[in-house]
Write a structure and sequence with these properties.
mainly alpha; 4 helices; 66% helix; globular
Length: 83
């Protein structure tokens, strides 16, 4: 188990190394908060998450993950990232 309480560092590690744990949805929510903290719009964050999943998940299908990614983006929009 990886314990990183600074979500900014955790997001940067995910971006560089891909998924770290099996908790992919949690890690995607950290990435979404990170991108929102960088001033990205909802559409940009969604597209960045899709791109990340395409690069780091085997057999990723945007249609199957659309609702989950959309929920992550909507939830993370108003949640500040922990630093």
């Amino acid at each position: 188990m990886i314990n990183i309480y600074n979500e900014v560092e955790y997001a940067e590690k995910i971006i560089n190394d891909g998924f770290i744990t099996r908790r992919k949805l949690y890690e995607l929510s950290i990435l979404a908060k990170y991108y929102f903290s960088k001033g990205k719009s909802k559409n940009e964050v969604f597209d960045l998450l899709v791109k990340f999943c395409e690069d780091n998940m085997e057999n990723f299908n945007k249609v199957l993950y659309f609702d989950k990614l959309n929920n992550i983006v909507n939830t993370s929009k108003n949640t500040p990232i922990k630093n």
